[in-house]
């Protein structure tokens, strides 16, 4: 093959070959081979539309990769005990357009056959890429004679003695004609980036897009950006601490760059005015400020006692987080990463992990939660900082947000908006090659959609589109279906169920609406059955739940999601069709559907209660939402009043309500056992759940005049049935328009609320207005907003959201 072959306009597939000698080749040296795949047609054509433009897609090239050993049969050996099955031998290998060779074991001498093949490859190719110590093998072939080359810096003096006819230079990589040589190991990635830009690059090119979105290294070719061994950057990273061994107080010690004096003075002025202070005469810019600023709050002691978390405890919490992330696997912390290293490089993510992992220490969790929100307020809101650290930290916090600390706050929606905005500003949605970026996008949009649906709003169209395209792209690429994409595919199905409610509810004709609902239910159930069959979920359901959940594919969260989806599908007729309407055709068929829905709800509760209670500690917001939404579904059918009531339907309601009450009582008992809260202690999340469940259960209890025997209804006349219906509607204590304790305010009468009042100063400000905490502002009329909890809907608005009519 002529060396004049044009790699820029090949007109045919480009043959790229890795030559493996009869030694162990360094694995990292041949890593650049993957670069060609990243802009090859096989990869680019399967990318979703949002990941790449049509113009860039059209620039993809055809590559054929060859793995060449001498006999074409013996696997090539790579460091790390890896074996490569060869595709070609020295004899059968076609002429290669691009040749890549890495370093072999120290002291290995190429055989005569190997040297002859290397000379042949060099003569035929258009580019010869030698990485690290491969230069040593080339010396015996005389290929480098009279050329400029480089190699590992420590070996250059030896190479100069062995090959004085070669001009050895101290560079990361160097090109002389068609031969490219590099320094050690990862310098091969610098070289391949330079090679790609030289041959196919330029602004607006596909290669430039791949290099940027793939974050290929861009380092100084002369090692001028290299840090010496004595540089502080090369030292062991330790987390900065003060106040003894407290890890948290050492985070975010470096203050952000201050704005100019006028801006800071204006900030102080506003703070003073908002706190009700007056500006003293002669001091127009510096009002009396008795409250520390947000930055000081990050460093200050909290009022009760100081946060105290040493590095050993931080390491234990980090280990706990790695285990609980099975329930929300979109943030990965490598096993080798320590808490000390994160404190230096990912402080916000570490702070989030520590906060959400302190479930068993509610007082300390409350303090860290305040620290987290204050850091977020200063760094992200006030100074506008953005980074992957903030994105990952906020995503972790949202996924395991301690709901019990501010139960009536709707800050979750605000935080989610901040998270989505940062993701867009950092252009993470455009970087599908970066696994971390893709994972946070999928995780964020899943949560965003879930919370929207929880508030009975249609999910965000952009989030839904991204999730669907990401899942479809993974299918087309035939990539391994890990737990992240399994959960994402189920969430796409969840969105489709909710969207079906919006689409069908607008139909006017009851018969057409009923047909459409039944068709959609059948379609959704089929999709779910296919998912279960493809991923073998049914067989994995019967795992030994007494064993710790540490499998590669976490069965429990997956199964919970599937059972929850079955409930939502079965509930569709009652979300869309009004059973109280006389226009509903075939009420007997509707009764069959409500029976089916009750069966799905029972299946969910049975499985939920079979999960070992220690796993509840790891549950994410998604898992708790599934429980909340299922309780909501239970209430929906238990208090359903169709237009054509019959003894059979009344009997069903009585039986179902009794069975659901048993499940709720079992859940309440489990929450009580899980709670670590004692009298006078700060309440934890399980104590809150128990209090809410106890209130909800009171709405299920039959009234004094209501018979609990289904047979008694069947023995009475029609008039008696009508009276029972009225009593049934009135069953349970009257509530303002909802049974949700978080919305109707009844949570204030619970043990949980009393425990919050008694715990510490966190709630003192709510009662007397003396606290400097976030519950009071000092502005007349503003604090009264906090008194009406109906103005502050929460994630619990779906507990029992049907009215009592």
UniProtKB/TrEMBL annotation:
The keyword Metal-binding does not apply. The keyword Iron-sulfur does not apply. InterPro entries: Class_I_gatase-like, DJ-1/PfpI, prtT. Keywords: DNA-binding, Nucleus, Transcription, Transcription regulation, Zinc. Residues 701-720 are annotated as: Disordered. One of its GO terms (molecular function) is transcription cis-regulatory region binding. This is Major Facilitator Superfamily protein. It comes from Aspergillus niger. The lineage of its organism: Eukaryota, Fungi, Dikarya, Ascomycota, Pezizomycotina.
């Amino acid at each position: 093959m002529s060396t004049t072959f044009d790699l820029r306009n090949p007109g045919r597939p480009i043959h790229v070959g890795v030559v493996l000698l009869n030694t162990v080749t360094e694995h990292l040296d041949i890593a650049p081979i993957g670069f060609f795949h990243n802009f090859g047609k096989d990869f680019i054509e399967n990318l979703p539309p949002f990941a790449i433009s049509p113009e860039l897609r059209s620039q993809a090239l055809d590559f054929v990769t060859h793995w060449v050993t001498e006999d074409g049969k013996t696997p090539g050996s790579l460091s790390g005990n890896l074996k490569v099955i060869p595709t070609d031998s020295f004899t059968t290998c076609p002429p290669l357009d691009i040749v890549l060779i890495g370093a072999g074991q120290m002291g290995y001498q190429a055989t005569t056959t190997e040297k002859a093949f290397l000379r042949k490859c060099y003569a035929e190719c258009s580019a010869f890429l030698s990485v690290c110590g491969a230069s040593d093998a080339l010396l015996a072939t005389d290929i480098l004679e009279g050329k400029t080359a480089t190699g590992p810096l420590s070996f250059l003096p030896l190479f100069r003695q062995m090959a004085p006819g070669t001009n050895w230079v101290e560079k990361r990589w160097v090109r002389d004609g068609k031969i490219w040589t590099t320094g050690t190991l990862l310098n091969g990635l610098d070289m391949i980036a330079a090679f790609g830009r030289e041959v196919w690059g330029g602004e607006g090119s596909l290669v430039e897009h791949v290099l940027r979105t793939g974050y290929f290294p861009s380092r100084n070719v002369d090692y001028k950006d290299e840090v010496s061994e004595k540089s502080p950057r090369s030292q062991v990273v330790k987390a900065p601490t003060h106040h003894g061994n407290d890890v948290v107080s050492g985070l975010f010690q470096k203050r952000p760059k201050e704005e100019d004096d006028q801006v800071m003075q204006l900030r102080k002025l506003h703070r003073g005015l908002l706190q009700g202070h007056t500006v003293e005469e002669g001091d127009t810019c510096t009002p009396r400020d008795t409250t520390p600023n947000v930055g000081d709050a990050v460093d200050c002691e909290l009022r009760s006692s100081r946060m105290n978390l040493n590095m050993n405890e931080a390491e234990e919490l980090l280990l706990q987080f790695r285990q609980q992330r099975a329930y929300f696997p979109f943030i990965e912390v490598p096993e080798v990463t320590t808490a000390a290293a994160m404190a230096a490089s990912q402080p916000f993510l570490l702070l989030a992990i520590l906060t959400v992992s302190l479930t068993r220490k509610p007082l300390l969790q409350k303090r860290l939660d305040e620290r987290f929100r204050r850091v977020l307020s200063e760094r992200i809101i006030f100074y506008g900082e953005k980074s992957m650290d903030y994105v990952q930290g906020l995503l972790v916090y949202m996924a395991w947000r301690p709901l019990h600390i501010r139960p009536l706050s709707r800050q979750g929606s605000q935080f989610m908006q901040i998270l989505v905005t940062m993701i867009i500003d950092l252009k993470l949605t455009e970087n599908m090659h970066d696994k971390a970026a893709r994972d946070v996008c999928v995780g964020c949009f899943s949560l965003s959609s879930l919370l929207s649906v929880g508030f009975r709003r249609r999910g965000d169209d952009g989030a839904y589109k991204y999730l669907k395209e990401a899942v479809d792209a993974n299918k087309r690429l035939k990539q391994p279906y890990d737990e992240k994409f399994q959960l994402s595919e189920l969430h796409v199905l969840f969105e489709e169920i909710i969207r079906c409610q919006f689409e069908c509810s607008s139909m006017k004709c009851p018969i057409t609406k009923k047909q459409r609902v039944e068709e959609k239910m059948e379609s959704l159930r089929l999709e779910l059955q296919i998912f279960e069959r493809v991923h073998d979920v049914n067989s994995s359901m019967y795992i030994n739940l007494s064993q710790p959940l540490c499998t590669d594919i976490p069965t429990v969260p997956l199964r919970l999601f599937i059972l929850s989806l079955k409930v939502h599908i079965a509930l569709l007729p009652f979300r869309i069709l009004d059973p109280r309407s006389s226009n509903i055709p075939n009420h007997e068929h509707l009764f069959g559907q409500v029976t089916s829905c009750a069966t799905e709800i029972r299946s969910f509760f049975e499985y939920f209660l079979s999960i070992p209670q220690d796993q509840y500690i790891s549950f994410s917001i998604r898992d708790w939402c599934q429980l909340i939404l299922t309780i909501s579904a239970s209430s929906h059918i238990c208090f359903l009043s169709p237009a054509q009531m019959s003894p059979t339907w009344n009997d069903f309601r009585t039986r179902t309500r009794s069975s659901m009450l048993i499940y709720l009582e079992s859940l309440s008992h489990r929450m009580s056992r899980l709670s670590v809260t004692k009298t006078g202690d700060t309440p934890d999340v399980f104590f809150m759940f128990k209090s809410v469940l106890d209130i909800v259960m009171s709405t299920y209890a039959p009234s004094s005049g209501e018979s609990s025997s289904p047979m008694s209804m069947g023995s009475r006349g029609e008039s008696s049935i009508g009276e029972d219906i009225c009593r049934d509607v009135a069953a349970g204590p009257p509530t303002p328009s909802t049974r949700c304790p978080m919305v109707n305010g009844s949570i204030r009468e619970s043990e949980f609320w009393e425990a919050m009042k008694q715990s510490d100063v966190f709630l003192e400000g709510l009662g007397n207005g003396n606290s400097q905490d976030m519950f009071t502002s000092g502005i007349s009329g503003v604090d009264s907003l906090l008194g009406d909890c109906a103005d502050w809907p929460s994630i619990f608005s779906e507990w029992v959201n049907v009215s009592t009519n």
